[in-house]
Amino acid sequence: MPDGKESQMWKDLLSDGPLLNLMMLAEAVHSREHAPQSSLSFCWKTFDILVNQLEIALMGASNKTRAQFTAARDKTSEHIQKKEWGFRIVPLLNILDVIDRGQQLLVAFSDHPEYHSRPDIVFGKEYLQNGELLKAFAHCLPDYVANIGQDKRRKFMEGIVCDDGLWASLQVNLWNAQRSDVPIPDKLWVFKDCLTVINVAFRSLEDSTKVDWHAPEFGLLAHQFESFINHCFQGSFMARDTSFRVGVIRARCCKALLAQFCDDFRHDGTIFFRSQWDVASLTRLFWVIGIRDEKDSDTEFWKPYINGGQIGAEFAAKARETISQATCDGSLLIFYKLGHLVTIAVPLHGSGLVPQDLKKVWDLQRSMVNDQHLPLNRASDQVWERVDRLRTEVSHLCSNLSIEDRDQLVPLLEMIDEIRSPSQNELKSSEYADTQLPASPASSPSKQRGRVERPNFSSESTATTG
Questions:
Q1: DSSP designation for 438
Q2: 3-class DSSP state for residue 443?
Q3: Is the domain of 115 the same as that of 176?
Q4: What's the confidence (pLDDT) of residue 431?
Q5: 276 and 354 housed in the same domain
Q6: What is the pTM of this model?
Q7: Distance (Å, rounded) from C-alpha 459 to C-alpha 372?
Q8: Do 168 and 189 belong together in one domain?
Q9: How many CA atoms lie within 13 A of 407 on its CB side?
Q10: Do residue 399 and residue 452 come from a single domain?
């Protein structure tokens, strides 16, 4: 029997050996970049063999070895950019990137032994654009993030989104599913996998300062998301659980976009559109939650711009006026629509939903109640009237439900009562009003307006098919 020291040595070898072996080969390629192409081709084939032989269960490399691997990857990238013959080892960088991305995913699969012998998908060049890997990732991800702290969860998802192109991968999966010849139920499995991953991403990245919600990749994903819904659910009813989860994701998307657009406006005093997807994201936000500018014009103005396109001076002026209004009304409108979403989910029996699904909505609404940057108490009287009507409707609904279902709606009633209390309807400090965005008509008594209700998060679709 080997003693403890020898046993640890073998354990370290099994854990660190695969990465060390790959790094040795990478160093050999660096020293032979002038070699004949046939020799380099042999190296690429050797790399493919080594990668395909990786065992996920044996990739628990030490932090020291991981740091060495990252340094080797960075050295290769710098060499390609600065050296005359660097272009010859571009395939090496591609291989190291594949391994680096795969390592990001390993921790999510750690508690699922059924994937430990599948390096072909975890270290595949398609990464999460591979439908099989996405399915496995969606299966493992919720359990993984549920068992780690918020900081670790955020850092993990930031790496998947910012470094490994999660938005583009999800877009490709939706695109491929939408255009495939497989039956609609098979397409919906792909859609549900994407819903799972997107929902975890939003929950994990709520307080992230690294993720750019203006990124074109996110705009493209949002567009493809709506296009898929229009195409695959056309002429049919969406299942209640799917409709609910779509609604929650739309709400999270609106919340993230609202926060970033308002923050940019707060600092710059205006709105800059870096791409057509900035236009699409902002107009989708305004249209979906029903924001109107100070002139109280129809929100249908925004619909033609939802897929991007040319804009002019009229659009820019209206967008600036409306974002000012959005800083006051936006958060409470999202809160209201989430509450409405819950009311159509109850009773839960036969819906495919469980109380934990509703708890995610309560947590999201709670984060909005506690948000000091976009406080609910700055909303106009018109939006508060919607919230009051919602409370009346929920109270009436509770009187016709079983005790069990009624209990599911109690948190919503309690939260509405909380934000409606006098202490919550006063600005927390006059200093906030002086330092934030320009004053809006929302801070003065609202005039009587015609009621224009927007569709609920779960029932609307904002992309056009073509």
A1: P
A2: helix
A3: no
A4: 38
A5: yes
A6: 0.76
A7: 30
A8: yes
A9: 5
A10: yes
Q: Is 203 helix (H, G, I), strand (E, B) or coil?
A: helix
Encoded tokens for 111: 């508690």
User: Which range marks the domain in which residue 287 is found?
Assistant: 246-466
Q: What angle do CA 113, 117, 121 make, to 5 degrees?
A: 110
What is the 8-class DSSP label of residue 351? T
Give the whole-angstrom CA distance, residue 342 versus residue 154.
27
pLDDT tens column, 316-325 = 888 888 888 8
Collect all residues with Cβ–Cβ distance below 8 Å to 436 and sequence separation of at least 6.
266, 327
> Which of the four pLDDT bands, split at 50, 70 and 90, describes residue 71?
confident
Q: Into how many domains does the chain fold?
A: 3
Statement to judge: residues 411 and 444 lie in one domain: yes
Residue 240 inside a domain? The answer is: no
Residues 363 and 289 in one domain: yes
Which amino acid, one-letter code, is at 70? T
If asked whether residues 76 and 92 sit together in one domain, one would say yes
Q: Using an 8 Å Cβ cutoff, are 332 and 379 in contact? A: yes
- Measured between alpha carbons, how far is 408 from 354 in angstroms, rounded to an integer? 10
Residue type, 461: S
260: Cβ contacts below 8 Å, ≥ 6 apart: 212, 213, 214
What's the confidence (pLDDT) of residue 464? Answer: 36
80 occurs within a structural domain: yes
One domain for residues 36 and 174: no
Contacts of 405 (CB under 8 A, 6+ apart): 346, 347, 348, 349
